[in-house]
């Protein structure tokens, strides 16, 4: 059982490694979107640092969402997904392995890149630190919730846009707590309440989202 | 033992088949015949539990496959229209990782032997992307040589295979059946497989 | 005497029953609406702060209630449909969604109409309006997902799952929006903090809510009848129905 879980994780990581350019695309997207705002708004550091938490979080959210379509689509098209459904291991567990691989490949790099962009937005050091922590706690929830949307829209017309419509409203709490944490630390307040709520979101998604994703996959493969 | 009772399949508002029932015992082989679009593939997917039947139930050892899902799935090897191969992995990686992801911890040597058995060991280290249709199919079928389960459900296993591979596969099927296995397959080719009991199920309008 | 409820869980049996129920619910909707409108326009006193403009809450508040209640009812039908694999439940969920979306939209529009004279802006990021907006997104997602899946059975089940995921998330979203609102704006602008509600006002709102409820039932039943005919057009009972309709005309 552990073996199957590890194999799914390793296979997805290996595939991502062999398709490195796809991973780079997500990161570039994150970079470009967050570089557009100063160009549209103007370079005053005070303005930039006040919008930074929201902009960086929204950019991270969009980058994560764009990569969602890849989570199951290739497996669906080549038939590995139905083989996964027929594995004797619980599908919910195998789903967590796939989501973890997705997060390691698409979520974690964004978390690591974010402080660099934070510097462009004139964020002070402690806010940068809170930004990393908030992204680290929040992006797993994005991957987990997004997986439900990705599974529901498999093989559906215009699935890329549809996924956005389904998933973005569900991302709102994560966005509010995540951006709120950074803003709180900017204003010299404690970000602890926000971060705890963010962690709670991730934990709750870890419990519930794989169940929903597994059910959605069964529906979509029919 | 696989028992099927009163299966019906609805696609859109078209009833593909109804009242399909049969019983498959150890050593039994079942051919599913029918024209294109008569629901052969849908039936096979229903037997695996991938497709929910409109009516009827599939039993594995007298229990529904939903209830007995772990024992049923660990006995099941399904090969559908799709090969389930990853283009960016080599043939060998595809085979070993595919088996391990299904909980069957095979060694690399065993996987190589399986590839050799269907005559494709030369391609073991090539990415699946560069293989031809027939070669891909053979890599997929190689997992039958690794399978430990009793029930094989194969959708068009002989399609796109050359004559030599067809006879290798037929011999493997006969061996599986003689050792107490069961097989359900659809085919358009006339291939003789030796088995103790052969049943035929014809789906028609 | 026992009624066999399961008999009515098949579209064939439910179709005529729904047809018989529609006029009665329509009648109830009209009665409640007349009574509710009478109270809200003639009986309820003019507000000393807001003048006559406040009367829009007799539409706004019931519409907001309905938008939430319908989502929950829809999710309930969806869950039932998933659990029992009942076609009728999924059809009911599908039939309720557009009405729910319309009430959400109505709550948003009336909210902003009320906001203009109150706060001098068509839109304020007030907690309740923001949650209504997100609820509208959830409804639209449900409708879009169902519309883009061709196979009706898959559309039903996928939609049902989405509705369930949504209903788990609604309280979390509502809480997060409320928290966000209190952090960013304070409580100076808050519809929830309206002056103490007089009994007549509450009465008016309740009557309007009942009227909306009955209207929802009517529209949902009409829509579910259309869905049934479309889905089951190949079945014998629909064919028999169209033959008998042909003979009458």
Helices and strands, with pairings:
The complex is a heterotrimer of chains A (222), B (205) and C (249).
Chain A: H1 2-18, H2 20-41, H3 45-68, H4 70-78, H5 80-85, H6 91-120, H7 125-152, H8 159-186, H9 192-221
Chain B: E1 2-11, E2 14-24, E3 28-34, H1 40-48, E4 55-60, E5 63-64, H2 69-75, E6 76-79, H3 91-101, H4 108-117, H5 133-141, E7 151-155, H6 163-178, E8 182-186, E9 197-203
Parallel strand pairs in B: 3-8, 3-9, 6-7, 7-8
Antiparallel strand pairs in B: 1-2, 1-4, 4-5
Chain C: H1 11-43, H2 57-84, H3 87-119, H4 127-148, H5 152-185, H6 199-231, H7 236-248
Name the features.
heterotrimer, A: 222 residues, mainly alpha, 9 helices, 87% helix, C: 249 residues, 7 helices, globular
Notes on the protein architecture:
The complex is a heterotrimer of chains A (222), B (205) and C (249). By secondary structure, chain A is an all-alpha fold. Chain A has one domain. Chain A is 87% helix and 0% strand. In chain A, helix 1 crosses helix 6, helix 2 packs across helix 6 and helix 6 crosses helix 9. The longest helix of chain A has 30 residues. The two termini of chain A are 25 Å apart. The model of chain A has no long low-confidence stretch (mean pLDDT 92). Chain B has six helices and nine strands, in the order βββαββαβαααβαββ. In chain B, the strands form two sheets. Chain B has a five-stranded parallel β-sheet, with helices on both faces. Chain B has a four-stranded antiparallel β-sheet with strand order 2-1-4-5, with helices on one face. Chain C has one domain. Chain C is built from seven helices and no strands. In chain C, helix 1 packs antiparallel against helix 6 and helix 4 packs antiparallel against helix 5. At the A-C interface, helix 8 and helix 9 of A face helix 4 and helix 5 of C.
At a glance:
The complex is a heterotrimer of chains A (222), B (205) and C (249). Chain B has helices at 40-48, 69-75, 91-101, 108-117, 133-141, 163-178; strands spanning 2-11, 14-24, 28-34, 55-60, 63-64, 76-79, 151-155, 182-186, 197-203.
- Give the CA-based shape of chain C: globular
Total count of helical runs of at least 4 residues of chain B: 6
Total number of strands of chain C: 0
Known CATH architecture of chain B? 3-Layer(aba) Sandwich
Q: Could you give the count of β-strands of chain B?
A: 9
Q: Provide the low-confidence segments of chain B as ranges.
A: none
Beta content of chain B: 25-35%
Q: How large, in whole angstroms, is the Cα Rg of chain B?
A: 17 Å
Which assembly state applies to the chains in this document? heterotrimer
| Sequence stretches where pLDDT stays below 50 over 5 or more residues of chain C | 186-193
